[in-house]
Amino acid sequence: MSQYFNGMQADVIQASGGWQKARASQGTGACVEMRKLNDGQVAVRNSRFPDGPALVFTALEVEALLSGAKGGEFDHMAI
């Protein structure tokens, strides 16, 4: 069983490497941050609330999300 779970406090997640955000969001204060976890999953948090809850996704779930984003499937959400 994984030590990581949805809704856990993001600031207590320990993993090699740090939280990463898109270069385009630097300095805007509106950042979605991701962190690769030791078990291969990926945690996602809102940078405005670094100690808030994190969502935890499998690598396959993140791969599907990124593929859809690269393909423009979510563009309508940013407009």
Q: What does this molecule look like?
A:
With 79 residues, this protein is of the alpha+beta class. The chain has one domain. It has one helix and four strands. It has a four-stranded antiparallel sheet. The protein is globular.
Tell me, rounded to a whole number, the average pLDDT: 92
Oligomer: single chain
Strand order of the largest sheet: 1-2-3-4
Order of helices and strands: EEEEH
Structural class by secondary-structure content: alpha+beta
- DSSP strand content: 15-25%
In the residues, how many domains can be counted?
A: 1
Task: Work out the helicity level.
Answer: 10-25%
* C-alpha Rg (nearest Å): 13 Å
Key attributes of the depicted protein:
79 residues, alpha+beta, four-stranded antiparallel β-sheet, 4 strands, globular
Gist of the model:
The protein contains one helix and four strands; from the N terminus they run E-E-E-E-H. By secondary structure, it is an alpha+beta fold. The protein has a four-stranded antiparallel beta sheet with strand order 1-2-3-4.
Give the SSE map:
Layout: E1 20-21, E2 32-36, E3 42-46, E4 55-57, H1 59-70
Antiparallel strand pairs: 1-2, 2-3, 3-4
